[in-house]
Protein backbone atom coordinates (compact mmCIF):
# COMPACT_ATOMS: atom_id res chain seq x y z
CA UNK A 1 0.00 0.00 0.00
CA UNK A 2 1.29 3.42 -0.93
CA UNK A 3 1.12 5.91 1.90
CA UNK A 4 0.22 9.30 0.51
CA UNK A 5 1.43 12.60 1.79
CA UNK A 6 -1.27 15.27 2.33
CA UNK A 7 -0.06 17.08 -0.81
CA UNK A 8 -0.59 13.94 -2.87
CA UNK A 9 -3.89 12.85 -1.29
CA UNK A 10 -6.32 15.07 -3.11
CA UNK A 11 -5.13 14.64 -6.72
CA UNK A 12 -4.91 10.87 -6.23
CA UNK A 13 -8.40 10.58 -4.75
CA UNK A 14 -9.83 13.00 -7.32
CA UNK A 15 -8.45 10.91 -10.11
CA UNK A 16 -9.70 7.64 -8.66
CA UNK A 17 -13.15 8.85 -7.76
CA UNK A 18 -13.75 10.68 -11.00
CA UNK A 19 -12.52 7.70 -13.05
CA UNK A 20 -14.21 5.03 -11.01
CA UNK A 21 -17.58 6.65 -10.54
CA UNK A 22 -18.42 8.43 -13.76
CA UNK A 23 -20.07 5.43 -15.36
CA UNK A 24 -23.64 4.12 -15.65
CA UNK A 25 -26.31 4.95 -13.34
CA UNK A 26 -28.70 3.31 -11.03
CA UNK A 27 -29.39 6.70 -9.49
CA UNK A 28 -31.64 7.47 -12.46
CA UNK A 29 -33.79 4.43 -11.90
CA UNK A 30 -34.02 5.07 -8.16
CA UNK A 31 -34.33 8.82 -8.31
CA UNK A 32 -38.09 9.01 -7.90
CA UNK A 33 -37.77 6.99 -4.73
CA UNK A 34 -34.83 8.77 -3.16
CA UNK A 35 -35.74 10.48 0.09
CA UNK A 36 -33.84 13.67 -0.57
CA UNK A 37 -33.17 15.58 -3.70
CA UNK A 38 -29.68 14.77 -4.83
CA UNK A 39 -27.83 17.59 -3.18
CA UNK A 40 -26.61 20.11 -5.73
CA UNK A 41 -26.48 17.23 -8.15
CA UNK A 42 -26.03 18.30 -11.75
CA UNK A 43 -24.65 15.16 -13.33
CA UNK A 44 -27.19 12.35 -12.95
CA UNK A 45 -25.13 10.01 -15.14
CA UNK A 46 -23.51 8.22 -12.29
CA UNK A 47 -24.28 5.70 -9.60
CA UNK A 48 -25.26 6.10 -5.94
CA UNK A 49 -22.74 7.77 -3.61
CA UNK A 50 -23.92 7.36 -0.05
CA UNK A 51 -22.23 7.55 3.35
CA UNK A 52 -23.15 5.83 6.64
CA UNK A 53 -22.38 7.64 9.88
CA UNK A 54 -22.91 6.47 13.43
CA UNK A 55 -21.16 5.40 16.61
CA UNK A 56 -18.94 2.29 16.69
CA UNK A 57 -21.12 -0.81 16.78
CA UNK A 58 -24.36 0.96 15.88
CA UNK A 59 -24.86 -1.30 12.85
CA UNK A 60 -23.40 0.71 9.96
CA UNK A 61 -21.82 -2.41 8.48
CA UNK A 62 -25.01 -4.47 8.72
CA UNK A 63 -27.28 -1.94 7.02
CA UNK A 64 -24.67 -0.68 4.53
CA UNK A 65 -24.02 -4.21 3.38
CA UNK A 66 -27.76 -4.96 3.00
CA UNK A 67 -28.28 -1.79 0.98
CA UNK A 68 -25.23 -2.58 -1.10
CA UNK A 69 -26.74 -5.96 -2.10
CA UNK A 70 -30.14 -4.39 -2.73
CA UNK A 71 -28.84 -1.52 -4.85
CA UNK A 72 -25.89 -3.25 -6.49
CA UNK A 73 -23.26 -0.74 -5.39
CA UNK A 74 -20.08 -1.64 -3.51
CA UNK A 75 -20.05 -1.40 0.28
CA UNK A 76 -16.68 0.04 1.24
CA UNK A 77 -15.93 -0.14 4.98
CA UNK A 78 -12.66 1.49 6.00
CA UNK A 79 -12.67 -0.68 9.16
CA UNK A 80 -12.53 -3.78 6.91
CA UNK A 81 -9.66 -2.26 4.92
CA UNK A 82 -7.83 -1.62 8.20
CA UNK A 83 -8.42 -5.19 9.42
CA UNK A 84 -7.17 -6.60 6.08
CA UNK A 85 -4.01 -4.58 6.60
CA UNK A 86 -3.71 -5.83 10.21
CA UNK A 87 -3.93 -9.44 9.06
CA UNK A 88 -0.63 -9.06 7.14
CA UNK A 89 2.44 -9.24 9.32
CA UNK A 90 4.32 -6.20 8.16
CA UNK A 91 5.97 -3.49 10.29
CA UNK A 92 3.12 -1.15 9.21
CA UNK A 93 0.43 -3.55 10.45
CA UNK A 94 2.13 -3.73 13.87
CA UNK A 95 2.13 0.05 14.05
CA UNK A 96 -1.54 0.23 12.99
CA UNK A 97 -2.70 -2.46 15.41
CA UNK A 98 -1.29 -0.48 18.35
CA UNK A 99 -3.42 2.51 17.38
CA UNK A 100 -6.57 0.52 16.55
CA UNK A 101 -6.35 -1.58 19.72
CA UNK A 102 -6.27 1.56 21.84
CA UNK A 103 -9.50 2.71 20.19
CA UNK A 104 -7.78 5.62 18.44
CA UNK A 105 -8.26 6.79 14.86
CA UNK A 106 -5.60 6.23 12.23
CA UNK A 107 -4.22 9.30 10.49
CA UNK A 108 -6.19 10.76 7.59
CA UNK A 109 -3.22 9.98 5.32
CA UNK A 110 -3.18 6.29 6.18
CA UNK A 111 -6.95 5.90 5.80
CA UNK A 112 -7.03 7.74 2.49
CA UNK A 113 -4.11 5.62 1.30
CA UNK A 114 -6.12 2.46 2.10
CA UNK A 115 -9.28 3.89 0.53
CA UNK A 116 -7.45 4.91 -2.65
CA UNK A 117 -5.99 1.43 -3.02
CA UNK A 118 -9.49 -0.07 -2.58
CA UNK A 119 -10.98 2.34 -5.14
CA UNK A 120 -8.24 1.49 -7.60
CA UNK A 121 -8.98 -2.24 -7.24
CA UNK A 122 -12.72 -1.51 -7.66
CA UNK A 123 -12.06 0.55 -10.75
CA UNK A 124 -10.13 -2.32 -12.29
CA UNK A 125 -13.21 -4.53 -11.73
CA UNK A 126 -15.56 -1.96 -13.29
CA UNK A 127 -17.27 -0.93 -10.05
CA UNK A 128 -19.52 2.10 -9.98
CA UNK A 129 -20.85 4.15 -7.03
CA UNK A 130 -20.30 3.38 -3.35
CA UNK A 131 -21.79 3.11 0.08
CA UNK A 132 -19.06 4.26 2.44
CA UNK A 133 -19.05 2.95 6.00
CA UNK A 134 -16.60 4.36 8.53
CA UNK A 135 -15.46 7.20 6.26
CA UNK A 136 -15.41 10.15 6.70
CA UNK A 137 -14.74 10.14 10.43
CA UNK A 138 -13.11 13.53 10.78
CA UNK A 139 -13.92 16.96 9.39
CA UNK A 140 -10.68 16.82 7.40
CA UNK A 141 -11.77 13.55 5.74
CA UNK A 142 -15.24 15.02 5.02
CA UNK A 143 -13.66 18.08 3.42
CA UNK A 144 -11.37 15.98 1.25
CA UNK A 145 -14.31 13.84 0.13
CA UNK A 146 -16.37 16.95 -0.61
CA UNK A 147 -13.54 18.34 -2.70
CA UNK A 148 -13.36 15.27 -4.87
CA UNK A 149 -16.95 14.16 -5.32
CA UNK A 150 -20.59 14.74 -4.42
CA UNK A 151 -22.30 12.78 -1.70
CA UNK A 152 -25.99 12.25 -2.40
CA UNK A 153 -27.11 11.05 0.98
CA UNK A 154 -25.67 10.55 4.46
CA UNK A 155 -27.51 8.10 6.70
CA UNK A 156 -26.85 8.74 10.37
CA UNK A 157 -27.71 5.70 12.50
CA UNK A 158 -28.55 6.36 16.15
CA UNK A 159 -28.86 4.06 19.14
CA UNK A 160 -28.59 4.66 22.89
CA UNK A 161 -25.06 4.33 24.26
CA UNK A 162 -25.69 1.51 26.75
CA UNK A 163 -27.06 -0.64 23.91
CA UNK A 164 -24.09 0.22 21.70
CA UNK A 165 -21.65 -1.01 24.36
CA UNK A 166 -23.59 -4.28 24.78
CA UNK A 167 -23.76 -4.77 21.02
CA UNK A 168 -20.01 -4.22 20.61
CA UNK A 169 -19.29 -6.69 23.42
CA UNK A 170 -21.51 -9.26 21.67
CA UNK A 171 -19.88 -8.90 18.23
CA UNK A 172 -18.28 -12.03 16.78
CA UNK A 173 -16.62 -12.72 13.44
CA UNK A 174 -16.25 -16.12 11.79
CA UNK A 175 -12.51 -16.55 11.34
CA UNK A 176 -13.13 -18.68 8.25
CA UNK A 177 -15.91 -17.03 6.21
CA UNK A 178 -15.61 -13.52 7.70
CA UNK A 179 -19.36 -13.43 8.54
CA UNK A 180 -20.46 -10.96 11.23
CA UNK A 181 -22.64 -12.17 14.10
CA UNK A 182 -23.80 -10.91 17.47
CA UNK A 183 -24.43 -12.99 20.58
CA UNK A 184 -25.84 -10.10 22.65
CA UNK A 185 -29.49 -10.40 23.60
CA UNK A 186 -30.80 -6.95 24.37
CA UNK A 187 -34.09 -6.43 26.16
CA UNK A 188 -34.33 -3.07 27.86
CA UNK A 189 -37.71 -2.06 29.27
CA UNK A 190 -38.97 1.45 28.59
CA UNK A 191 -39.10 3.79 31.58
CA UNK A 192 -40.01 7.43 32.29
CA UNK A 193 -41.21 7.97 28.74
CA UNK A 194 -38.04 6.47 27.18
CA UNK A 195 -38.98 3.61 24.84
CA UNK A 196 -37.58 0.16 25.57
CA UNK A 197 -35.52 -1.70 23.01
CA UNK A 198 -35.30 -5.35 22.08
CA UNK A 199 -32.63 -6.87 19.86
CA UNK A 200 -32.40 -10.60 19.34
CA UNK A 201 -28.93 -12.09 18.91
CA UNK A 202 -27.72 -12.68 15.36
CA UNK A 203 -26.41 -16.20 15.80
CA UNK A 204 -24.02 -17.93 13.39
CA UNK A 205 -24.88 -21.07 11.40
CA UNK A 206 -23.54 -24.26 13.01
CA UNK A 207 -20.57 -24.36 10.56
CA UNK A 208 -19.23 -21.08 11.97
CA UNK A 209 -19.99 -21.71 15.66
CA UNK A 210 -16.57 -23.09 16.59
CA UNK A 211 -14.69 -20.50 14.52
CA UNK A 212 -15.98 -17.33 16.13
CA UNK A 213 -13.49 -14.68 17.19
CA UNK A 214 -13.87 -11.35 18.97
CA UNK A 215 -12.18 -8.24 17.62
CA UNK A 216 -9.25 -7.16 19.78
CA UNK A 217 -10.75 -3.64 19.94
CA UNK A 218 -14.12 -4.90 21.25
CA UNK A 219 -13.23 -4.86 24.95
CA UNK A 220 -15.30 -2.64 27.25
CA UNK A 221 -12.42 -0.23 27.87
CA UNK A 222 -11.58 0.19 24.18
CA UNK A 223 -15.25 0.45 23.16
CA UNK A 224 -15.73 3.31 25.62
CA UNK A 225 -12.62 5.02 24.28
CA UNK A 226 -13.90 4.62 20.69
CA UNK A 227 -17.22 6.19 21.67
CA UNK A 228 -15.38 9.04 23.42
CA UNK A 229 -13.30 9.66 20.31
CA UNK A 230 -16.40 9.41 18.12
CA UNK A 231 -18.02 12.19 20.14
CA UNK A 232 -14.98 14.44 19.76
CA UNK A 233 -13.89 13.75 16.17
CA UNK A 234 -16.90 12.34 14.34
CA UNK A 235 -19.94 14.12 15.83
CA UNK A 236 -18.81 17.31 14.03
CA UNK A 237 -19.01 15.32 10.77
CA UNK A 238 -22.75 14.82 11.42
CA UNK A 239 -23.10 18.60 11.72
CA UNK A 240 -21.01 19.07 8.55
CA UNK A 241 -23.56 17.09 6.52
CA UNK A 242 -26.59 18.41 8.46
CA UNK A 243 -25.64 21.93 7.42
CA UNK A 244 -25.48 20.79 3.80
CA UNK A 245 -28.99 19.35 4.00
CA UNK A 246 -28.24 15.78 3.02
CA UNK A 247 -28.28 14.06 6.42
CA UNK A 248 -30.98 11.48 7.09
CA UNK A 249 -31.26 10.76 10.84
CA UNK A 250 -32.42 7.24 11.59
CA UNK A 251 -33.10 6.06 15.14
CA UNK A 252 -32.86 2.28 15.15
CA UNK A 253 -36.10 1.00 16.64
CA UNK A 254 -34.74 -2.49 17.45
CA UNK A 255 -32.95 -5.36 15.77
CA UNK A 256 -32.77 -6.12 12.04
CA UNK A 257 -36.39 -7.42 11.68
CA UNK A 258 -37.83 -4.14 13.01
CA UNK A 259 -35.18 -1.75 11.68
CA UNK A 260 -34.61 -2.95 8.11
CA UNK A 261 -38.18 -2.41 6.82
CA UNK A 262 -38.33 0.98 8.57
CA UNK A 263 -35.00 2.03 7.06
CA UNK A 264 -36.22 1.05 3.59
CA UNK A 265 -39.37 3.05 4.22
CA UNK A 266 -37.34 6.07 5.30
CA UNK A 267 -35.34 5.73 2.09
CA UNK A 268 -38.48 5.20 -0.01
CA UNK A 269 -36.98 1.92 -1.10
CA UNK A 270 -39.59 -0.49 0.30
CA UNK A 271 -41.01 -0.88 -3.20
CA UNK A 272 -37.57 -1.65 -4.56
CA UNK A 273 -37.09 -4.38 -1.97
CA UNK A 274 -40.41 -6.01 -2.93
CA UNK A 275 -39.47 -5.95 -6.62
CA UNK A 276 -36.09 -7.53 -5.84
CA UNK A 277 -37.70 -10.23 -3.70
CA UNK A 278 -40.30 -10.95 -6.39
CA UNK A 279 -37.60 -11.17 -9.05
CA UNK A 280 -35.43 -13.51 -6.97
N1 LIG B 1 -12.10 6.85 8.58
C1 LIG B 1 -11.23 6.43 9.50
N2 LIG B 1 -10.33 7.27 10.05
C2 LIG B 1 -9.44 6.87 10.98
N3 LIG B 1 -9.39 5.62 11.48
C3 LIG B 1 -10.28 4.71 10.98
C4 LIG B 1 -11.24 5.07 9.97
N4 LIG B 1 -11.98 3.97 9.67
C5 LIG B 1 -11.51 2.98 10.45
N5 LIG B 1 -10.50 3.41 11.24
C6 LIG B 1 -9.74 2.62 12.24
O1 LIG B 1 -10.19 1.27 12.19
C7 LIG B 1 -10.84 0.91 13.43
C8 LIG B 1 -11.98 -0.03 13.15
O2 LIG B 1 -12.92 0.62 12.32
P1 LIG B 1 -14.45 0.16 12.28
O3 LIG B 1 -14.53 -1.30 12.03
O4 LIG B 1 -15.16 1.06 11.33
O5 LIG B 1 -14.85 0.45 13.78
P2 LIG B 1 -16.23 0.60 14.51
O6 LIG B 1 -16.83 -0.75 14.58
O7 LIG B 1 -15.71 1.09 15.81
O8 LIG B 1 -17.08 1.60 13.76
C9 LIG B 1 -11.23 2.24 14.05
O9 LIG B 1 -11.37 2.15 15.46
C10 LIG B 1 -10.03 3.11 13.65
O10 LIG B 1 -8.89 2.84 14.43
Descriptors:
disordered N terminus, single chain, 3-stranded antiparallel β-sheet, binds adenosine-5'-diphosphate, 5-stranded parallel β-sheet, 280 residues, Rossmann fold, 12 helices, globular, alpha/beta
Provide a descriptive summary of the structure in words.
- The chain is an alpha/beta fold and 280 residues long.
- The chain has a domain at 14-21 and 48-159 and 225-265: Rossmann fold, CATH 3.40.50.300.
- The protein is 49% helix and 14% strand.
- The protein has helices at 6-20, 27-30, 60-71, 78-86, 91-100, 108-124, 139-148, 161-170, 206-209, 220-244, 256-266, 270-279, and strands at residues 49-53, 75-77, 130-133, 153-158, 171-174, 180-182, 186-188, 197-199, 212-213, 247-251.
- The strands form 3 sheets. It has a 5-stranded parallel beta sheet, with helices on both faces.
- Strand 7 and strand 8 form a beta hairpin.
- Helix 1 packs parallel to helix 6 and helix 1 packs across helix 7.
- The longest helix is centred in the last third of the chain and has 25 residues, at 220-244.
- The N and C termini lie far apart (39 Å).
- Residues 56-57, 78-79, 82, 99-100, 104-106, 111, 134-135, 137, 141, 217, 226 line the site of adenosine-5'-diphosphate.
- Its EC number is 2.7.4.3.
- It is an enzyme of class 2 (transferase).
- This is adenylate kinase.
- It holds the Pfam family ADK.
Amino acid sequence: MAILTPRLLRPKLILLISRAFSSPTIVDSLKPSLPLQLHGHTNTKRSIQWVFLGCPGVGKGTYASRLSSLLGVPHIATGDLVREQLSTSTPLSKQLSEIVNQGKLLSDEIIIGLLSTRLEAGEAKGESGFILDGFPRTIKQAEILEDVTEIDLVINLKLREDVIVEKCLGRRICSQCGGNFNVASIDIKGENGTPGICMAPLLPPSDCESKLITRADDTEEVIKERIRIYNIKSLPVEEFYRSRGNLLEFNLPGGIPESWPKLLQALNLDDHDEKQTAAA
